[in-house]
Amino acid sequence: MTIRTFAAAAAASIALTASATAQETFEMTSAFGKNLPILGTAAVNFTEKLNSITDDVEFEHFDPGELVPALEALDAVSNGSVDAAYTTAGYWQGKIPAASLFAAVPFGPEAGEFLGWMMYDDGMELFQRMYDEAGYNVHVIPCGIIAPETSGWFKNEINSVADLEGLNMRFFGLGAEVMQRLGVSTSLLAGGDIFPALERGAIDATEFSMPRIDARLGFHNIAKYNYFPGWHQPATLFELLINKDRWEDLDEMAQAQVEIACMANITDNYAEGEATNFDAMKDNVENNGVNIEQWSPEMLDAFENAWNEVAAELAAEDAYFAEVWADLQEYREGYAVWNNNIYLPRPRN
User: Fold this and answer.
1) The whole model's pTM is what?
2) Under a CB-based contact definition with an 8 Å cutoff, are residues 173 and 107 in contact?
3) 115: which residues sit within 8 A by CB, 6+ positions away?
């Protein structure tokens, strides 16, 4: 080997070694266990997508509780004890009043409309600014979305608002504020804690997610009345939170790769939810003795009226909620011009 050839080979070896040692590894906690279809597998799928397209950054997936509990992920990512989290902003409603507006809005936008606001209007800028102004050291990227969830599992049939009064129910996000207004006592439980609470009678009813996901958690074994439509979550957006210092240390190529993997994950996540829930619904009816129920127009009106009151009060109490809510409402007014003309009309029931 000539000196020149040896030098070139040595330089190549050093470059490869530098490239290998430069890879950034991120430990990512998920709010949902990987055993949960659609919700849990979305976080796994994201890491697989990203790791397959880059040698610059690698994400390692951890189930809730392995690094931190699901409801502590925001603080953990912000303080750097965890590098990243796949979760939903609705879990931070108790910390940041506007957070649920970036997760699921009662009687709000469905998936296409929601993504339009986030990506081509002001949603994304407002989303990041929310965390910045609240003092959290995180970078946020939309990373998943699903269509409506079921409206809840009940042990008894619900025919009126009076039937809701006095119930203890697991409920998520802004919809919980509505249920409280109608006499329900709500609590936010992580997915793995819901069935034991139902079983021992600590809660009388629950909502969690889509039929296929709920089937994995076994709610049908205790609560036989499953209500639709999911007025409280017409769409649910999921976020990737990354410690801002770690994010800013990545070069532009690695940042773009993370964003591209999240964009691909949004498509995959939405499609899986749309394609795989009807079989779970049929199985519930045919094999599990579940009654699939539709809310009456009167009940939907009661939910919507209560939501309008809640939204007005939250906007009056919190300036940032008011700003985001006004921006979303302005966008929806414009979107209605398109929506009301281009799509076939669908009856509410």
Assistant:
1) 0.90
2) no
3) 142, 145, 266
